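Hey, sorry to bother you again with one of my protein questions. I've been puzzling over a protein and I'd love to understand its fold better. Take your time with it, there's no hurry, and the full record follows here:
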Amino acid sequence: MSALDNIAVRVESAGNLTRNALPLLHEIRHALARLAESGESTAIDLRSIPFGPGDEADLLAALGTGEVTAQLQALGESRITETSYPGVWVVDHYNADGQRIAFQVEVTPVPQILAAQPADVADGLQRLEAALAELAEPESRPASL
């Protein structure tokens, strides 16, 4: 036996939401107040926060799940989940190998990743106009039997 074996160790817990989950919930509350008062959106990068064991699970459990979820497949999977607090979203991004590359809470009416980008809108308009032009040309329609 070493001298370390003789040192008494006592583990204490302050209950649920210890470590980083509780301060994050307060930060989210302040961000939600800014959103409600001024429309200012906030993104909190959860990967930059030193989560201890159970912190992520505690935070997600405290936020709960709301009515909206979305899943995107673009260079990897992205999962967007509204929490039980409207305007508070958990956004989780993975690369094509399934490794988490971004994990954040967005306090916003709609997460940025779900908003159509102006270039994409312009491209969609061009494609729709081309499709409508093709439908309007009689020679492009197949002959009926």
User: Anything to note?
Assistant: The longest strand covers residues 100-107.
